[in-house]
Amino acid sequence: MLEPVSVLTTVTTLIGVSYRLTTGVNALVNRYQQANLTLTTLATECSTTQIALTNIERFLRARPDFLSHGVVARGCLQTSIGTWASIFSVLDSELARINRGTPSIPRINIRGRMRFLLNEDRLKEISNQLRDLRSSIGFLLESAQT
C-alpha cells in the first residue's frame, strides 16, 4: 500500500491531469458548431471530477491521520486513485484519436466528426465511470467526516 504522502502526491498529480483533460474536452466542445450532448456531459464530468479531486486533496491535508488509521479507507482511496488514472489514460487516448490530424482547425471537419461518432459510446462510458467513481469517493469522505 502507498504511504499517506504518496497518496497525497498522487492525488495532486491527478488534479493536474484532470485539468489538462478538462481543458482538452472543453476545446473539443468549442470546436463543434453545436456541441453534442455526450461531449457537453463529458466536459461537465471532467470539471466536476477536478473539483472532487481538489476536495480530496484538501481533506487529506486537513486530516493526515485518515490514511494512517484506516486500512479499508486507504485501500478504497488507492483503488479509486488507480481507477481515475486508468480512466484519464483512456480519455486522453480517445481525445487524441478524435483530434488526430485536425488539432489546429478551429472547427471539426467531417473526418473528425466521423471519428467522434465512432468513439461516442466509449466517451459516454468514460463519463459514467467518472460520475460513479466520484460518487463512491464522495460517500467514503462523507463517512470519514462523521
| Residue windows where pLDDT falls under 50 for at least 5 positions | none
- Tell me, briefly, the overall form: elongated
- Structural category is mainly alpha
- Mean pLDDT score: 80
Report the strand count. 0
Evaluate the radius of gyration.
Answer: 17 Å
- Give the DSSP E fraction (strand runs of 2 or more residues): under 5%
Percentage of residues assigned to helices: over 70%
Total helical segments: 5
Largest sheet: none
Order of helices and strands: HHHHH
Please, could you describe this protein's structure?
There is one protein chain. The protein has helices spanning 4-31, 37-62, 65-69, 71-99, 110-145. It has one domain. It is mainly alpha-helical and 146 residues long. The chain starts with a helix and ends with a helix. Helix 1 (4-31) packs parallel to helix 4 and helix 4 packs antiparallel against helix 5.
Quickly list its features.
mainly alpha, 5 helices, elongated, 146 residues
Write the layout of secondary structure elements.
Layout lengths: L3 H28 L5 H26 L2 H5 L1 H29 L10 H36 L1
Brief account:
The protein is mainly alpha-helical and 146 residues long. It is 85% helix and 0% strand.
